[in-house]
Specification:
InterPro entries: DHFR-like_dom_sf, RibDG_C. With 143 residues, the chain is of the alpha/beta class. Helix content is 30%, strand content 27%. 22% of the residues are buried.
Amino acid sequence: MKRRPCWYLRKTIFTVRFLIVSVKAMSRSKFIALAAMTLDGRIARKAGEFTNWTSAEDKAQLHRELDSADAIVVGRTTYTTAREALSKRRCIIFTRSTIVCKEENDLVTYLNPAVVGVEQFCKEKNYSRVAVLGGTETYTYFF
């Protein structure tokens, strides 16, 4: 059996582990990062990919975490990709295309984190547990 280099394994194995990390905790709001990622740290194989490549157990855990959240923070691209799956959940969508906080309806709010602080927004709305669902720039904001 031919031995493969380490980079080959990282590039080809897409074993996914579900990651739950407490990102920031304030007196009123706790932000929880939820991510399905490959062993090499990727959250998608390509841009716009829906994460249907995780296990049934991972999906069940994700749904339990989302059910316990008061709101979900996602980037605009992630929201566009998963709009139907997120349609019945309260979403805060990070976008640079709005200058102020724009509440589309009871479940959808567009927010520019460079202008409006998401921590303060969540505190004002009394969200005690907020799930951070990605994408890359959204995770970067919280870390």
